[in-house]
Each structure stands twice: as structure tokens, then as C-alpha cells.
Amino acid sequence: MIGKDPFADENQAFAEKTVETEPIFTGKIISLQRDTVLLPNGKQAYREVVKHPGAVAVMVIQDDKMAVVEQYRKPLERSLVEIPAGKLDEGETPESAAMRELQEETGMKADHVTLVKSFYTSPGFADEIIHLYFADQCTKGEQQPDEDEFLQLQWLTLNEAKAFVEQGKIRDAKTVTAIYVWELYQLTGKLM
């Protein structure tokens, strides 16, 4: 993971000490390792861990609509509708990654983004953390997706977004979270 873990706590009651790490796979986005750990009761166990550099997601609200992109997700063998998102590049701050991903996937340029919350995606086997950002003052431009990225930009009202959740078109945690943060924002004027 890039940067310091914002949730780290030195006093872990059930900490597992890593005795050995066996690299299994290193890819473009993730790596997989098998850790031998010492449990609090003194016994050893194994943990398969997916290492990820971290990611960003951006909820863009303009004219009471949220920007989403539809794209094919190979692990699921189907298309999903999601908020713009992507992984952190080496040495990149989450804020600059959010602004880059926003421009690449939607064509929108933001002068600034506001961090809403950071959260883990699957802490049972992966260290990926997503930093969710908010932007509402953007200028329109041209999409610049990655060479291997095919997506379609859409703008949804809050009711349409919630209907997409009910219909199963939106199923990923970051987008569902963004929709409920948006609803909270409409009701209270606060992001969290």
C-alpha cells in the first residue's frame, strides 16, 4: 500500500506476527503472497494476502446528477455502472490520482477534490484501500481512458442511481457508498 495506513493502531490485541512471507505472484496491479503467522495463542497459521497499491474513487455531482461510467468487469463476466475510479500510481498522492482518474474516465477537470472517507475493500484477504473523493465544481472536457479501458459516461439522478442499485446495475461497494453519501449530502449539506 502506498503511504501510511490511516487506520494503523499499534496496540492490536489479536495481532498476528509474520514469521515468513512467500511471494506467489506479482502482476501489473496486484501481488499475492502466503504469510506464515504466529497467532496470539502461540500456534502457526497461513494467510494468503493480496497486496494492492491503493485506489481512488470520485463522486462528481453536477446539476443534481452524478457521473458514472459503465464498463465490463472480467472477474464478474458482466458490465457494471460505477463512479470513476482507479489505482494509485507509484509516488502519486490519492488527491492527484483522484483528479487524474476523473479526467481520464469522464473528461471532467476539477480544481480540487474533497476527501470523504477512506475504506478497505476486502480486509479478509487484501490490503486495498480506496479513498473516496467528492467534486462538484468541474469543467467539461474529453474522456481520455487508458488504452485497454472501454467505458461509457452517464449522468444519473439520485433516484436513478438508487434504482440502478435495486436493479443490480450498480453492485460495487464504492459506488453504493457514494450514493448514500450523496443522499446524506442532499439531506444535511454534509458529506459525512
Structural overview:
InterPro entries: Nudix_hydrolase, NUDIX_hydrolase-like_dom_sf, NUDIX_hydrolase_CS, NUDIX_hydrolase_dom. Its EC number is 3.6.-.-. Keywords: Hydrolase. Pfam families: NUDIX. This is NUDIX hydrolase. By secondary structure, the protein is α+β, with helices and mostly antiparallel strands. The chain has a domain at 55-188: Nucleoside Triphosphate Pyrophosphohydrolase. Helices cover 20% and strands 39% of the residues. The chain contains 3 helices and 12 strands. Strands 4, 5, 6, 7, 9, 10 and 12 form a 7-stranded mixed β-sheet that branches. Helix 2 runs antiparallel to helix 3 (173-188). The chain is globular. The model has no long low-confidence stretch (mean pLDDT 92).
Lay out the secondary structure.
Elements: E1 17-26, E2 31-38, E3 44-51, E4 55-62, E5 65-73, E6 78-82, E7 85-87, H1 94-106, E8 109-110, E9 114-120, E10 129-135, E11 138-139, E12 151-156, H2 158-167, H3 173-188
Parallel strand pairs: 4-10
Antiparallel strand pairs: 1-2, 2-3, 4-5, 4-7, 5-6, 5-12, 8-11, 9-10
Helix pairs in contact: 2-3
